[in-house]
Amino acid sequence: MQDTLVIQSHRTPLPYPWLGRCLASVRDWCERNRYDYRCLGDELFARVPEALLGKTRAQPVIATDLARLRVLQEGLNEAYRTVIWLDADILVTAPAAFIMPAESLAVGREVWVQPDRQGRLRVYSKVHNAFLLFRRGNPFLDFYAATAERLLERNRGSMPPQYIGPKLLTALHNIAQLPVLECAGMLSPAVCRDILAGGGAALELFRAHSPQPVAAVNLCSSSCDRQELTTRELERLIDVLLAQAGVG
Question: Could you tell me the pTM of the whole model?
């Protein structure tokens, strides 16, 4: 057994073929670094109390956000020194540059570029939970998981999809200034389209507000769900990102 465990999860069959290329990039990165790798299906949800599964049935991504924290806790309880979560739609574009930090926890960076109602591009810099790293002995994972579950238990109204994921994590980051792995990024549809076009204002804003080039990037499969990007565009985008070794 290695001292680092990388965990991913996806349903079968994959909703989009391009996700297979993302998963393969993570497996290859794990082999390169001799990390243990584990991929879960719907059994991931066994970590979520039945009452909360019922409450989040219309938005299973919320249950997934809690389940990933619980499965990471399990990994540390198995005696791994480091546990890492990567969403299934993360593509490792530059494996040699995707280096884990020395800190005992780290989250990903979200530089989201999108037009406002007047069509003007705006940048929103946050953190995300598509990448999470925790090392044994750091208390934040237990606090985060307990807080997320408590919020779900106490909630009596509607919940946005990012309720206990990026929204809660960003709120905690704004207070506690969590360590961020800046090369674990995320691409908005506007940035994706500019990459495919060979350049553009959204891509320039992304680069200007990203502290360093990304080496692994969340391609946001929800963009396909919302038909903001097509499967063919995502396939082409992966080709471009792998050829360029990221966005820098």
Answer: 0.95
